[in-house]
Specification:
The chain is mainly beta and 793 residues long. It is 4% helix and 57% strand. The chain is built from 4 helices and 56 strands. Strand 12 and strand 13 form a beta hairpin.
Length: 793
Amino acid sequence: MKRSLTWRACWTALLLMGAPVARADDAAAASGIVSGAVSGADPGPASLPGNPAVSNELYLEVSVNAESTGLILRFTQVGKRLRGNVDDLRQLGLDAARLGAPGQAEVELDAIPGLSYEYDAARQSLSLTVSDAVRAPNLVNARNTGRIPPSQVTPGAVLNYELYSELGQTRRTAIFNDLRYFNDSGVFSNTGTINLGSSASKYMRFDTFWNHANPDTLEMWQLGDLISSSLAWSRSVRIGGFQWRKNFQLRPDLLTFPVASVDGTALVPSSLSLYVNGIQQYTASVPSGPFVLNQVTGINGAGQATIITHDALGRSVSTTLPLYVDTRMLAKGLSDYSVEAGVLRRDYGQRMFGYESRPVASATGRYGVSDDLTVEGHTELSAGLYHAGAGALWRMGQKGVLNGSLSASTGSSSGLQLSAGYQYLSSRFSIDAQTTRATSGFGDLASRDGSPIVRTADRVSLNLPVLTGQSVSLSYIAYTTEGQPASKIATLGYSATLLHGLFLNASLFQDLREREKRGFYFGLSMAFDNNASVNANTSRQNGVNSRSIGAQRAADFGGGVGWAVQSGATGSVNYRQAQVDYLGNDGRLTARVQGGDAGNASSVGASGALVLMDGHVAMTRQVGNGFALVSTGGVADVPVLSENRQIGVTGGSGYLLVPNLNAYGNNQISINTDDLNVDARVPVSNINVVPRSLSGVLASFPIERYSAATIIVQDSTGHFMGTGLPVLHVQSGKKTLVGFDGVTFVDDLQAENDLRIGEGDSLCTVHFAYQRPATGLPVIGPLRCMPVTQGGQ
């Protein structure tokens, strides 16, 4: 009897809930629960129909691993089993690729490995128990750097200059100049030096080129003077011609080397902390289930990452994984390339147009086959020369990186070059070893340019941190250059950071082929908080002793005076020198005096730039790879900050140039509005600018003045208007309210103004003239507000 009552109660509950009715003759109906298992065992006949031909739709509240998802999803009941939609299962955090049903819209829950379930017909709920093997891991990026906004450029021109003039008997002046013009199409640049002397004057051109970059594709084109691409086992040459290459500097937020990723599991929603070599790098919240923490940075060489998860009950789980990162490698699937063609340039810095007539070409490529293997290739072509080589870098797990290459050349002569090396970096010790061998017939474009071939080269260096802030280094270098005697040098070094910022650096070297050639260096330096530092050193090389002592203070970033003094001797020749610098918004001025046994001399120098942008010519400090011209709409003396450091104040025309910014990167520029007049309106006080390489961008802060006044209004009887009455400025259409004592504030005033105050029968008008004062906001009134019927308006 009790069993029958229980069945009736379940039957009634199912009817009230509108659920599909299960068969009444099932043996386990009293529980109302059906279980399914990974093994595919029969879950029992509790409340699913026994007739496999019957198909029902169920809308069930789903929980995963005893955690409610808040989702009600559709399932199909077929016989004694449940089928789920693949898209719905994906919403529950399951990985569709691991469900074992590729290309299907629905999948049997019993057929999914790593999943079991309980179906409660009475509650119309489904409880899934899912292993990590079938769940899609939650991806967490350990780098908070988002995609950098598109770069910008404001058309303009810049002339960087640096003047150096020697005074006294040997009068000589040199002026370095860097002229650029930039717009949306690219950058034209020309560099050179003007030498002026008593005997002769000469101009020497260095580089002239035009380039264009595309940050979306990371491609860069350059026409004119350029330096060819190379790898660690090849050499670059100067070419006049054309270059097409990939430039990763166009995306500073992009990591090109293989970065570490660590995975783990959170049993319940938890907070996650990442420590790299014991230093906290990242924190985040993760839901329950597996997770993968990508782009773990802060490691170069061997290290370890520790992940600690904390749940709401205070329980913590710590996982430590060893990692090895080498920034020389390319991430899997990433490629790098460069192609050049033109003619060799000889006697750079001595002739303006020392170009050969024979064409040359070269190409370089790199590809990340996997995170553990990067392959490289390089080739060079010229009349009588064909050069090609291939190399690779192989990361051996946590044991370091091997590299090797083989190059061959043919033409007027033939030869081979073989190189191999190994590098391991860690906090305990670091080792770097490299060897190169080239046969007598081997050649490349650099040798065609007059640079001798290195026939043998061996390099081994070892660095050992001994105590906190101290390290010992050992190195051995041996090389044989074509046509020159061989050299073998061993070096022992020691460096330490001592108390109060005192830094010690010492080294010994010995030429192993010529025993009498040896020497040492010993130096002490200390830096202070006010940009000042002192240093002292002594050394001996080739039988000559040297010593010096000095002190210096660099000018503040925002401008000011810097100085430096030094006294010393080289052999028996004593010398002394002093220098003073002034750094301002318009550039840098330098004066130097020298004296000693060799005589006295003095010199002066100046450096800065002229920038033409936004129809304005600005004198400024030398500009670097990227810069910004700040405009405050003609308002002078406004402090300008770059990355929260004040760099100067705007000049009389309301402009200031911020000279050295990160090209294609985020640069925060702001203005300090504390000292602006009360009538100043500043729509924006902080701007993120992203300049292009060798170019500038306008950072506009349109500081405007209010055309506003405080108006005191009275009614026709001379009493203050009531608080809260609506006010309409007829000319601008702006609305406001009357405050206490008849005070109202009205903006966008014109030369002649009308106010409508009140509404309905109480509507009245005020007419007044306005002229903006030199500073401040005026108070006008009291003014009588006349009724519309009396005012005739």
